[in-house]
Amino acid sequence: MSITEAFSFSETFALVKEIKTAMYTDMRLLMYAIKSYRSQDKLKYLSELDINLSLFKVFIRLSYKYQYISGKNYASWSKLVTDICNMLGGWINSCQKK
Fold first, then answer.
1. Which of 16, 41, 85, 90 could form a disulfide with 4 if both were Cys (CB 3.0 to 4.6 A apart)?
2. According to the model, what pLDDT value does residue 48 have?
3. Distance between CA atoms of 47 and 80, rounded to whole angstroms?
4. Are 91 and 50 in contact (CB under 8 A)?
5. What domains are defined for the chain?
6. What are phi and psi of 80, to 5 degrees?
7. Residue 83's pLDDT is what?
8. Distance between CA 98 and CA 96 in Å, rounded?
9. From CA 8, how far away is CA 68, in angstroms rounded?
10. What is the C-alpha to C-alpha distance for residues 40 and 57, in angstroms, rounded to an integer?
11. How far, in Å, CA of 12 to CA of 6, rounded?
12. Using CA atoms, how far apart are residues 14 and 74, in angstroms rounded to an integer?
């Protein structure tokens, strides 16, 4: 069962759509960054990815606030997104040093 299946019907068309769109956009930006050869292009995509991950964190918080996900799910999602943000920060720093 998908985590977004626990959302109410009315939120299926709002918050769930935003969450899915953010995830797909993040995957797209990650692929663009991986395939880019110039550091400036990588930095552009990685910066956009960082902004989108911040939005994704907001969506997770809203999901928890409105009790669409449990505290356990909130903790798991938050930890995973924080780990991704930390790795992304390291990647951005390495691109800036070149």
1. 16
2. 96
3. 19
4. no
5. 10-97 (1.20.1440)
6. -65, -45
7. 96
8. 6
9. 7
10. 26
11. 9
12. 19
Tokens of residue 37, six digits? 């050869």
Q: Is 16 helix (H, G, I), strand (E, B) or coil?
A: helix
**Residue type for position 12:** T
Tens place of pLDDT per residue across the chain (98 aa): 455 566 666 666 688 888 889 999 999 999 999 999 998 999 999 999 999 999 999 999 988 998 888 999 999 999 999 999 999 999 999 998 86
Exposure letters 3-20 (e unless 16+ CB within 10 A, then b): ebeebeeebeeebbebbe
Tokens of 32: 């663009």
* Distance between first and last Cα of the chain: 44
C-alpha of 79 from chain center: 12
Instruction: Report the C-alpha gap between 60 and 68 in whole angstroms.
Output: 10
Please tell me the number of Cα atoms within 13 Å of 98 on its side-chain side: 12
